[in-house]
């Protein structure tokens, strides 16, 4: 039967639509994680992983001058630097104190009395006296494993690594070892505080 309006004009026929109503409680599912090579449960409880809080920050290479490394860390207000190779794989994760160590001539580090003999005008410019010294020139001769975590690492794993290595930042890498992002101490603590129960 066709319905009509007040003027006798029939209403246009509408097609019935069937909407699929999602289930109130979807079943717990599992999925394969290509980064870690294992199957893990899909995140449904809001648990954060390293990939969720990692951010893109400036990096340096072994070819960069030490003076550039200092500027990069300073301008970006970083607690340290990640040194990457030509394929963006982390070679070293340097806390800020180690970056500072690269700028201070060895003679002044070994003999504090010598540092006191430098006049005040030069004392402020000591870090620029390293000339063409590169980051690679200042790295340890013995290779040191960089502070890295996988994409699916928990925040506890990140915190444990930072505490063990006393590093204020860690590199987050994908399954190929390529840098995905960086987690700083400040960002980790902020994420932990926001994820915790309200006071």
Automatic annotation (TrEMBL):
This is Histidine kinase. Signal peptide: none annotated. GO terms for molecular function: kinase activity. The keyword Repressor does not apply. The keyword Cell division does not apply. SUPFAM superfamilies: CBS-domain pair. CDD domains: CBS_pair_bac. Keywords: CBS domain, Kinase, Transferase. Residues 141-199 form the CBS domain. InterPro entries: CBS_dom, CBS_dom_sf. PROSITE patterns: CBS (PS51371).
């Amino acid at each position: 039967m066709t319905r009509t309006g007040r003027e006798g004009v029939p209403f246009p026929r509408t097609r019935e639509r069937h909407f699929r109503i999602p289930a109130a409680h979807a079943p717990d599912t599992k999925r394969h994680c290509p980064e870690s090579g294992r199957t893990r449960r899909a995140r449904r409880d809001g648990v954060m992983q390293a990939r969720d809080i990692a951010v893109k920050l400036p990096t340096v290479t072994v070819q960069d001058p030490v003076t550039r490394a200092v500027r990069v860390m300073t301008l970006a207000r970083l607690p340290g630097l990640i040194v990457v190779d030509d394929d963006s794989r982390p070679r070293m994760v340097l806390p800020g104190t180690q970056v500072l160590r690269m700028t201070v001539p060895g003679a002044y580090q070994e003999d504090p009395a010598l540092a006191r003999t430098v006049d005040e005008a030069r004392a402020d410019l000591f870090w620029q006296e390293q000339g063409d010294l590169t980051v690679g020139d200042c790295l340890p001769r013995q290779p040191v494993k960089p502070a890295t975590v996988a994409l699916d690492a928990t925040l506890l794993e990140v915190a444990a690594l930072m505490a063990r290595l006393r590093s204020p930042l860690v590199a987050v890498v994908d399954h190929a070892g390529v840098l995905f992002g960086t987690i700083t101490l400040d960002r980790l603590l902020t994420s932990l505080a926001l994820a915790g129960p309200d006071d």
